[in-house]
Amino acid sequence: MPKQINGKEIAESVRESLKKEIDLLSARGYQPGLAVVLVGEDPASQVYVASKVRACAELGLRSQKWVLPAETTQGELISLIHQLNADPAVHGILVQSPPPPHINERAVVLAIAPRKDVDGFHPENVAKLVLEDPSGFVPCTPLGCMELLRTAGIETAGAHAVVVGRSMIVGKPMAHLLMSKRANATVTIAHSRTRNLAALCRTADIIVAAVGRPEMITADFVKKGAVVIDVGINRIADSSRPRGYRIVGDVDYASVAPNCRAITPVPGGVGPMTIAMLMANTVKACRQSLQES
Q1: What is the pLDDT of residue 1?
Q2: Cα(268)–Cα(29) distance, integer angstroms
Q3: Cβ atoms 66, 79 nearer than 8 A
Q4: Which residue pairs from 202-205 have beta carbons closer than 8 angstroms and sit at least 24 positions apart in sequence?
């Protein structure tokens, strides 16, 4: 039987450590603060924002939630971001993605002060990731994946890791983290158009699936004894479920798991770690702000 990497348990351990650090900061008169901005009424985004605000409350972080109408202009949104940049009580700023089509998401990312960019998307933080500068902020999902591997005792040094997906949110930062001097993996970045993708994946000791296609990674992609990290969160129609759908990953868990040494489930794997790492980045931003003052 493969080892199931339980993201809920590992995220809870991260949160317990953060709670102790937050309590120490609060005792000194400092409370980490996160501002979450949502433009429009996308149901999935509303759920994500609510979960982030709830996590802040549970840990003792100060949270500000800004819900703006869908017709908010780009100028109005950026004006709010500048206001939050200047607020010393706000250490992290997150604008929920995706914004409405009339808003340029890149312009929004550039407007956030790098020292408050707890999503890790600003070019300055991307550069720090590549340069392995620990003062930068790393995108929360790949950071959570690395914590899962570390806590589960998965050796990355010398391993061949195949990252399936090339987004700036997961795939590319994941590859940089794995090839860093701390992890020392040999990394191949693949994607949906990679030739002979299944054969390539079969050479991997570690597969990170972040391609955004439901159950795309099947048993013939995975060699015996591989470790599989499934980043995908996809809704599949299922009339037998109360909500009419079920959540699956980018990995066909039932067929892949028997081949694996370790694997993350969906849900309950990477997802809880993303929010835990957002909290960790916010605490880090608070700590660094104290060093600068």
Answers
A1: 74
A2: 35
A3: no
A4: 203/160, 203/162, 204/160, 204/161, 204/162, 205/159, 205/160, 205/161
Catalytic residue IDs:
52, 96, 119
- Residue 162, Cβ density class (10 Å: 0-12 exposed, 13-18 middle, ≥19 buried): buried
- Check residue 184 and give left, alpha or beta (phi > 0: left; psi -120 to 50: alpha): left
> How many angstroms from the chain centroid is the CA of residue 247?
17
Round the CA-based radius of gyration of the chain to a whole number and report it: 19
Per-residue model confidence as pLDDT tens digits over 185-215: 999 999 989 999 999 999 999 999 999 999 9
d(CA 73, CA 141): 29
- Whole-number pLDDT of residue 149: 98
Structure token digits, residue 110: 């550039």
Residue type, 275: I
Amino acid present at 174 = M
Residues of the chain under the 50 pLDDT cut: none
Buried b (16+ CB within 10 A) or exposed e, 118-149: bbbbbeebbebbeeeeeebbbbbbbbbbbbbb
